[in-house]
Amino acid sequence: EPELVNDILERIQAISDEARRALLDPELGRGELLKALESLIDENHAHLVTLGVSHPALERIREVTRERGLHAKLTGAGGGGCAVVLLPDAIDDGALGELVQALGKEGFEAYTTAVGGSGLGILSPYVERNQEDKAVAAEDFVAKSTVELGEWAADRGRWLFT
Predict the structure, then answer these.
(1) How do 82-86 and 71-75 pair as beta strands?
(2) Which of 32, 100, 108, 155 is most exposed, with minimal Cβ within 10 Å?
(3) Hey, is 77 helix, strand or coil?
(4) Cβ burial 10-45 (10 Å sphere, 16+ → b, else e)
């Protein structure tokens, strides 16, 4: 089985490489990026299942999220500890609350978080901006809540991530 395991690990590495490429692609629109990440999440999780590191609890989390059109995968060492769910930018508070409640009914504890970008986000140098625009952007950034950051970042234009 070492050949099978090595093949799967190489495929998982290829998924990570593709996710990084997609995140760094300044020409890829936000919607396209999220669709690509959803597909990569599903593919990655399938490989982890083949490796035997999933758990019935993780598969139940995936069922609950899949019923709502969401994509999830195990994270960490597997074995039932934790899963990550990719939420669309436009998910409303009601749908998020319903998801958290549904997971809670299954005995899971949900931790919600938001990120404004993948690592360090830099506004593309290929879009001309003046000093005043940069200063306003900095002030706006500080004033935004984590929930508002995704939409704010999308409205600012092309981003490069490192």
Answers:
(1) antiparallel
(2) 155
(3) coil
(4) eeeeebeeebeebbeeeebeeeeebebbbebbbbbb
Contacts 24+ apart (CB under 8 A), 74-82: 74/45, 74/48, 77/53, 78/48, 78/51, 78/53, 78/54, 79/53, 79/55, 80/55, 80/56
β-strand partners of 161: 121
The CB-based long-range contact list for 105-110 (8 Å cut-off, 24+ gap) reads 106/60, 106/61, 106/64, 108/57, 108/61
Token look-up 């409303």 returns: 92
DSSP assignment of 79-119: SSSEEEEEPPTT--HHHHHHHHHHHHHTT--------SSSS
* Cα distance between residue 25 and residue 140, in whole Å: 24
pTM assigned to the model: 0.70
